């Protein structure tokens, strides 16, 4: 028994150390390398600036927005300033840079506050959906057999339903609400993470360092979460970056249909819905929320493209 343990320890020492067991000094050099690579790619740097700018605006919306959402003026005064055009057009004023909507509310302030909902839903739904998918993918890929079959068949059945139709059905039953919207979007995204994680686990679980850990008697859960999961995270991170953009678009679509958050809370999708009846006479009602969605999704996708290239070892020569 002692000889077998010694041999297993020699095998474990001979194999290449996984990424998380690299000495701390070596890991400390990764951050400057990431920043250097990011700064060399101007397009990716632009994407990061867009995302950070949107996050800053969303967090400090009460201080950035030029007007409050409600209670600032009387109802009569608010209605008298309805459908003001942007400041640079005829009839516009510097008080309302992007104009006002059909109820006299400032478009710029509503776009700023709407970023809170979109980014909160995008990042939170991806975090919950990714966590569920990664855990199920790890269990499925490492266990195999009946457990693998059950999880993958559930994933296949889930993929058989058009997600947007399923989301509309669930939200129609549950009603509007930020927590319900996040839950539905998270449930709609776990399948992709599970399938990718399972494929990565199948490729990693027979590696030498995993075999050495088994020979040393390391518990299964420790092998799964310490020795296998870190080596499957690179594609998951890339998928998550693109999934945030997709989730923001899904939230806008559901809000456009009136199935997002409550009507009193401004969202980019609901602003698009409010402006569809004024496209000819008040084009700014739908234009600026649409531009906000486009810029945010573009920034996230630009960052995701760079992240995919950076984490892909085949592109590093």
Structure description:
The protein has one domain: MetI-like fold, CATH 1.10.3720.10. The protein is built from 15 helices and no strands. The protein starts with a helix and ends in a 6-residue tail after the last helix. The relative contact order is 0.14.
In sequence order, what are the helices and strands, one letter per element?
A: HHHHHHHHHHHHHHH
Helix-residue proportion: over 70%
Q: What structural category characterises the helix and strand content?
A: mainly alpha
Which oligomerization state do the chains in this entry correspond to?
single chain
Low-confidence stretches: 1-28
Supply Rg. 25 Å
By CATH reckoning, the class would read Mainly Alpha
Quickly list its features:
15 helices, MetI-like fold, disordered N terminus, single chain, mainly alpha, 317 residues
Please render the helix and strand layout as text:
Layout: H1 2-14, H2 24-28, H3 30-40, H4 42-59, H5 61-64, H6 75-80, H7 107-143, H8 145-160, H9 163-174, H10 178-204, H11 208-215, H12 220-228, H13 233-256, H14 268-275, H15 284-311
Helix pairs in contact: 1-11, 4-7, 4-15, 7-8, 7-10, 7-13, 7-15, 8-10, 9-10, 10-13, 11-12, 13-14, 13-15, 14-15
Concise overview:
The protein is mainly alpha-helical and 317 residues long. 71% of the residues lie in helices and 0% in strands.
């Amino acid at each position: 028994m002692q000889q077998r343990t010694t041999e297993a320890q020699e095998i474990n020492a001979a194999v290449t150390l996984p990424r998380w067991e690299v000495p701390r000094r070596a890991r400390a050099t990764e951050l400057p390398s990431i920043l250097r690579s990011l700064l060399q790619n101007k397009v990716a740097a632009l994407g990061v600036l867009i995302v950070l700018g949107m996050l800053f605006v969303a967090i400090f919306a009460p201080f950035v927005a030029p007007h409050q959402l409600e209670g600032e003026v009387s109802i009569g005064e608010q209605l008298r300033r309805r459908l003001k055009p942007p400041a640079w057009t005829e009839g516009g004023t510097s008080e309302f840079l992007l104009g006002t909507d059909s109820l006299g509310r400032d478009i710029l302030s509503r776009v700023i506050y709407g970023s809170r909902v979109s980014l909160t839903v995008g990042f939170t739904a991806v975090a919950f959906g990714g966590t569920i998918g990664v855990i199920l993918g790890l269990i499925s890929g490492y266990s195999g057999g009946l457990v693998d079959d059950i999880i993958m068949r559930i994933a296949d059945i889930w993929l058989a339903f058009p997600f947007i139709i399923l989301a509309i059905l669930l939200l129609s039953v549950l009603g509007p609400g930020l927590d319900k919207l996040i839950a539905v979007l998270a449930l709609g995204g776990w399948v992709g993470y599970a399938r990718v994680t399972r494929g990565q686990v199948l490729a990693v679980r027979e590696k030498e360092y995993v075999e050495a850990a088994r020979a040393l008697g390391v518990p299964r859960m420790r092998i799964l979460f310490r020795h296998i999961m870190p080596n499957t995270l690179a594609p998951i991170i890339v998928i998550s970056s693109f999934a945030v953009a997709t989730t923001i678009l899904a939230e806008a679509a559901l809000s456009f249909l009136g199935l997002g958050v409550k009507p009193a809370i401004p969202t980019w999708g609901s602003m698009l819905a409010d402006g569809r009846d004024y496209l000819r006479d008040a084009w700014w009602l739908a234009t600026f929320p649409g531009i906000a969605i486009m810029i945010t999704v573009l920034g996230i996708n630009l960052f995701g493209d760079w992240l995919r290239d950076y984490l892909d070892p085949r592109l590093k020569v």
